[in-house]
Amino acid sequence: MTLLKTERKQETKRPTLFVHGTYEKCNIPRKGELPVGFSLEDLQQDQIMVRKRLRGLNRFVPEQGLVSESELPTFHMENDHIYEERSVLVQSFEHYQKLKDHAPFSKLFPDHLDEILDDVRFGENMIVSGLDNTQICIGDIFEVQGETSSLRLQVSSPRLPCSYVDKKNGSPFGMKGIRRYTASHGLAGWFVRVLQSGTIEEGTRLVRVANPHPKWTLEYISKTLYAEVDRKHFIMCTAQWARSKEELEELCALPALGWYEWKAQAQLILDRWGRADVMVEPNKVIDSDSPLTVQGKHSAAAAVSLPIQLGRSSISFCVAQIVPCHLEKRFSHWIAIAIFGLAWLAVGMTVVLKDFPDEMRQDCSS
C-alpha cells in the first residue's frame, strides 16, 4: 500500500498535460469539388481548417490517430504514403497565450482564451495546457494518468504551419504573419504518433513518462532549422543550417524525429554539406527573437535596364527597380510579369520610333 502511494506521488511530480478538448475534421469541399471558377483562396476565414469539438470518450489508434464519425484521417498523407508520426496535432493554451501577449497578434484572439475551445485556430485535434514550446521535446512519451487508459503518445515534431494559419487567424501574410512567427518559435503546435491505442476525454491528464532528448525542445529545433536562416529561406519558410555538422548529425540521429519537413530536410542538408544553398553564415541569419530583424546586410534589389535606340542616339532606359524579398513569392511573380510587360512595351515603342521618318519624329518631338 505504501509503495502504491509512493508511485502515485512520483507520478504527480511529472510534467502533465491537461486535456481541454478534442476535435475532428469536418468534411469541407476539396479542390476537385469546388464550383467552376472557385478556388481554395476564395474560402472564408471560418471555412478553413474547420474542426468539430467532440464530447465523451474519444479513441486514438496507431497511424490513423483519432477515430471519429467523420472517418476523415488526421494523419498527413502524400502520394499514398502515410506519415504515422503526424497522427495527431496537439496545441496548448500556453502557445495561444504567448501569441496573444505578442503585440502584433494580441487583437486577433479573444480576451478569454476559453472561447478558443469552440473555435480552434490551428486545425488541432487536441488542446491541452501545462507545458509549452520550451518544455515539450522530441521523443517525449505521454500516458494517461492513473492508468485509466492504455493510450501512449510520442512527440515527433513541431508543426510547420502553412499560409492557411494566417488566413484562419486574420493575420497578414508574409514575414509579419502568425505563420512565420510560429514556425520560427515552435508555437504552431506539435505532432504526435500513437504508440498504443487508448481513449481520452476532456479532463484527462497525460503524464510524461519519458524525456529522452531534453535538448531538442520544440523551440530549439524550430530555431535551428527554420529561424537561423538567411532572408530568402526565412521568407520561403524553408530549412537551412547555421550550426556545426556534429549537431546536425545529432539531429538526424534522433529516432523519434518525424520525417516529413524535419528529418528529411535535416538529412538533405547533411547530404549536401558545404553547399551555399543549404548553409548560412551565423552572422547573416534572421534574429529568431524578432522575425522582422535581419542580422547582416542583404541586398536583393534588382533593376531592369533596356537599351533603346532613338534615331542615331542610344540611351539606357531603366524600366523598374524592385526588392522582391519583401513580398510573398506569388506577388513577386506578378511584379515580374508587369516588369516584362513594360519591357516589351518599351521595345515596341523603340521599333515604331525607329521606322518614323525624320520629319515625323521632329513633329512628334515638338
UniProtKB/TrEMBL annotation:
InterPro entries named in the record: Benzoxazolinone_Detox_Enz, MoCF_Sase_C
Pfam families per the UniProt record, alphabetical: MOSC (PF03473)
Q: Any stretches that span the bilayer, and where are they?
A: 331-353
Work out whether the entry's keyword set contains Ribonucleoprotein.
no
Q: One MF term in GO for this entry?
A: molybdenum ion binding
Top-level lineage group: Eukaryota
Keyword set, alphabetical order: Membrane, Transmembrane, Transmembrane helix
Cite the MOSC domain residue spans from the record.
59-209
Q: Which PANTHER family match?
A: PROTEIN YIIM
Q: What is this protein called?
A: MOSC domain containing protein
- Species annotation: Nitzschia inconspicua
